[in-house]
Amino acid sequence: MLETEPRIVNEYVQPGKVRLVYRHLLQLGERSELLAEAAECAADQGRFWEMRQAIYRRYNQLYTETLAGVEAAAVEAGVEVDALRACLAAGSHEAAVRADYEAATAEGVRSRPVFLIGERRIVGAQPFSVFQELLDRASSA
User: pLDDT averaged over the chain?
Assistant: First the structure.
């Protein structure tokens, strides 16, 4: 998805043809919750997508160095680290992240990534071509 998602965003989301909705799926317990909250804290600074990408690039590191890895991802994403720390300490997005998780699981989402385009559900990382026809159809409807 590191190659496909930017194309979807550039060709469909930014021009306003489709909307991309992201829901946090807390598959790895507390670590997932911390990463989700960090992404939302980054969103407070207008850097959600950048932080999300930085987290994915550092995902293996985040297994062992969770907080240090989050802070390194924040620096990479252009997020102000002191504000991120304060946001995390305050639990500013804890309830929203948990509500996101509950909404995703209520829709039957158990793994990621999952995409719903119109009535079609795509599971797993797929090449851009898999999305293109469905997105073209959805954006012209």
Answer: 88
